Amino acid sequence: MRIDVKAAARLLEGQDDILILSHGHPDGDTLGCGFALCRGLQKLNKRARVECADEIPDKYSYLWREVERPDFVPRFIVAVDVADTKLLGKAFESRYADQIDLCIDHHGSNILYAERTLLDASAGATCEVIFEVLKALHVEMDAQIADCIYTGLSTDTGCFRYSNATARTHRIAAEMIDCGADAAIINQVMFETKTRTYAALERLALDSLEMYFDGRAALVTVTQEMYRLSGSDESECDPIASLPRQIEGVLVGAMLREKVDGTFKVSIRTHRPVDAAALCKRMNGGGHPRAAGCQLEGPLERAKEELLSNIKAVLEA
Amino acid sequence: MRIDVKAAARLLEGQDDILILSHGHPDGDTLGCGFALCRGLQKLNKRARVECADEIPDKYSYLWREVERPDFVPRFIVAVDVADTKLLGKAFESRYADQIDLCIDHHGSNILYAERTLLDASAGATCEVIFEVLKALHVEMDAQIADCIYTGLSTDTGCFRYSNATARTHRIAAEMIDCGADAAIINQVMFETKTRTYAALERLALDSLEMYFDGRAALVTVTQEMYRLSGSDESECDPIASLPRQIEGVLVGAMLREKVDGTFKVSIRTHRPVDAAALCKRMNGGGHPRAAGCQLEGPLERAKEELLSNIKAVLEA
Fold first, then answer.
1. What tens digit of pLDDT does each residue of A227-262 get?
2. Which of A40, A317, B11, B188 has its CA 20 to 30 A from that of A96?
3. Which residue, of A191, A226, A253, is where some domain finishes?
4. A38 in the same domain as A113
């Protein structure tokens, strides 16, 4: 059942011992949502904690500085920024898939798996929706919550760069800065800092750059071998996905990321008028109009062939 | 004489045949200011036009789509985002240096050369100040003005990434998006598009990367030879200045850019606690706390030596 912000707030008001789940391979939005909501509920004297199926990278540790992690048997489960139970991560999918009481999300592709879903696909980040829920719960904002919400806004919109950064996104960002969000430091950590291993991986990936269809599509590949050579790993890979689309004339940029099992995770970034979600849907994936993803079988040449034939079809449409 | 927003608006209200000057080697803020103010004054039925000593790159052409360029003998001259008459560019410095009636700026280093100066060093971009002047003039905002103001906000704050992007910056951005600013397209043009020649120049410049002082300083050099090899030129150089600071542990990132006359233009980007403006002041330059610049004599080794001895002094302070 779809519910609105007020109904979600009323629902949460009546609950306690609340487990909040982020998606696996966590990013700034799902974690910002999780810890902002958790801190907000704790400020209302509820027991709540955040869990993630995968390890959370250290760079996010400022998100839970002032968030407690109480032990309890969950009586209510909320998934934040999780469009599909598959995205909870393997361990959590089997444990929680049919037990989610409330999902709060901004992905138009949400499969409505939860008992109740608060979905606002016009939000640039799920943190915008969490902000509204916290307001409806009359939670007093503080610097910890502001850091969390700001992180989601900034990371999901490429630091306010993409079309999903709306006037509302900017207004919430302004309020979060007024509440003490350390915006410049957060952006420095999220966008301005390249580890030496990432810098090496980026160089290797860019060496693999290939252009197709008169320069309208560009592909980079990240292989397990590149992780070994650079000392990097999959957790550092995400920013590379946006590089191919930056080259002038490119409408579809793609990153093929080799998994340990030999399959490929594909990240698509597009410019108008190409719909990334529609392109990925052809390959059983999904996402947003300008950023989406899917999985393809290996080996690399087979994955590329399938990807390119779908890109071709979309460019010709 | 320093004046406030209201006084600047009253002053402009009483004038006509207004020439607006941007700084030379123009950027998104000085041009956004110029064309926003020009369009605003034209909407108040005044004659006004923008001039720049240097050629304006084509990518900015959307800023004057709906701005007229009437011919008249100026009776009032406004400089926007110009901290020093030297920055007007050679041709304009000799012609206009002692004739500027009003300067509107956000550089703390402004030398107060104009008859009257509206200076707000807390503004992330001079476009924030222009926005307030247009409000005080009761100019009705439109999509053209919104594109101009948004461009200044976005380009001068690294797309809202740096510490100069305040709550006010975000609130004005929100209002500009509501007024029709095409934010995503502007950011795509300003931040997301690499020409093939720029991409080649970037690769050459990164090959010159040197680290000093236990990795706390990083230098890249851009030479005339690199322009020849890449097919690029100085107009594409700016984004390279921010790359050295991105490497983890770097507090001072510098780009040395070889000019045709063999001197070097130095662009400094710092992280807290290093003050870029103070560093550049030691070398007769200036700017902002995190981004500043200066000129050094060649040859390259001499320029590097002078730069490094000043960086060393600042790091040891």
1. 999 899 998 898 899 889 988 889 999 999 999 999
2. A40
3. A191
4. yes
Provide the CATH number for the domain around residue A224. 3.10.310.30
Q: What digits encode the pLDDT tens for the residues A16-56?
A: 999 999 999 999 999 999 999 999 999 999 999 999 999 99
Residue A165 and residue B183: Cβ atoms within 8 Å? yes
Q: Please count the structural domains in chain B.
A: 2
Q: Give the distance between the most distant pair of CA atoms in chain B.
A: 59
B102: left (phi over 0), alpha (psi -120 to 50) or beta: beta
Alpha carbon dihedral A28, A33, A38, A43, in 10-degree steps, equals 110
Sheet holding A210-212, edge to edge: A210-212, A217-222, A252-258, A264-270, A291-296, A286-287
Question: How close B160 comes to chain A (CA, Å)?
Answer: 7
Examine the domain organization and report whether B163 and B210 are in the same domain.
no
Residues of chain B that touch chain A, judged by Cβ-Cβ distance less than 8 Å:
154, 159-163, 165-168, 170-171, 173-175, 177-178, 183-184, 187-188, 191-196, 199, 245-248, 271
Ordered alpha helix ranges (H), B102-232: 126-136, 143-156, 167-178, 183-187, 196-207, 224-230
One domain, residues A167 and A215: no
Which of A161, A168, A199 has its CB closest to that of B191? Answer: A161
**Same structural domain, B235 and B306:** yes
Residue in chain A lying closest to B158 (CA): A159
Of A154, A160, A194, the CB nearest to B246: A194
pTM of the model: 0.84
CA dist A169 to A154, B102, B141, Å? 9, 35, 21
Q: What are phi and psi of B308, to 5 degrees?
A: -65, -35
Cα atoms in the 13 Å half-sphere on the side-chain side of A118 = 25
